[in-house]
UniProtKB/TrEMBL annotation:
It comes from Rhodovulum bhavnagarense. HAMAP family: Salvage_MtnA. One of its GO terms (molecular function) is S-methyl-5-thioribose-1-phosphate isomerase activity. Transmembrane segments: none annotated. Pathway: Amino-acid biosynthesis; L-methionine biosynthesis via salvage pathway; L-methionine from S-methyl-5-thio-alpha-D-ribose 1-phosphate: step 1/6. Catalyzes the interconversion of methylthioribose-1-phosphate (MTR-1-P) into methylthioribulose-1-phosphate (MTRu-1-P). Also catalyzes the interconversion of 5-deoxyribose 1-phosphate and 5-deoxyribulose 1-phosphate. Part of a bifunctional DHAP-shunt salvage pathway for SAM by-products. This is Methylthioribose-1-phosphate isomerase. Its EC number is 5.3.1.23. The active site is at D242.
Amino acid sequence: MKIDGTHYRSIWREADGTVQIIDQRWLPHELRIVALTNRKEFAAAIRDMWVRGAPLIGATAAYGVAVQMAADPSDASLAETWQVLHETRPTAINLRWALDEMTRVLKPLAPADRAAAAFQRAAEICDEDVEINHRIGVNGLEIIRKIAEAKGGGRVNVLTHCNAGWLATVDWGTATSPIYHAVEAGIDIHVFVDETRPRNQGAQLTAWEMLNHGVSHDLIVDNAGGHLMQHGEIDLCIVGTDRTTAQGDVCNKIGTYLKALAAQDNGVPFYVALPSPTIDWTVRDGVAEIPIEERAQAEVTHVQGKMPGGVVGQVLISPEGTPARNPAFDVTPARLVTGLITERGVAPASTKGLAAMFPERAG
Ligand SMILES: CSC[C@@H](O)[C@@H](O)C(=O)COP(=O)(O)O
């Protein structure tokens, strides 16, 4: 996507071979681009959320393997890199998907051939992600178009949670891709952006994306969505996912479940934008089987922002010493999901629906 006229991806390889990322910890206040040069830095970038969002975590891990292969292409190094990167964040399945995919490609090769093959496969994974998200946008656009037509061309109001935007992927985003496509198609669309405590990915990243792209939007506090739905101000919800099970349960940023409950109570369609690498075919019951990341208490007791004087920093908002819990994701059961917007089309959130859409993957 474009920032001030320049097209950026969230991760890319420079002509000199270095892997560059946008360090998202500083957005929206500063656009900082950094190079990741060794495995330790890749692990830190994923764990400490310089990059985040399920597809981007996967793409970053793929390049992390490639950089490590250039340093040490041995079998031991490949296996250890899988471990080191895999333990950085437990919930987004794209991480394991990308590490397994890199291992599948590299393991049969002679060590001397691994680095070049790894960089090539990492670049392909990035390009595939862009294409998948583009397709999700095309398929999701039809949902938005139908709502616009039903409203006689009136404004379509979309609620989204967290950042499932281009910053969470390599480009386009998942939940935002139908929105960007709708804007391009000339549909009058307005986006309600959940701030998404504790890390405020909505306030910091999605709002920034919408502003940059000239998309009409309002930032709302997380607790406002139900109220807006009750008053007919939301036509549909579109969110992303970090892991979707074979039966269509959706694990996404904490608070997604509450939005889905409010959507069902108010008859608001609740869609999930789902790239196929985000399906975990090995699990069925998301609540019972998906590991939920618990992050630092400080993310709850503090908020980050721009201080007077322009410095980006954190302020304590609770009494010093108050304990906090910080589960980073929750699971929305399939029964609350209207449809899964995939690169192949919109699937019902069910075992049958996903199996029909991806027959070659379903067990
Ligand atoms: C297209 S990204 C889908 C999800 O990864 C996104 O909604 C989300 O929850 C991101 O969480 P984060 O903790 O910022 O990595």
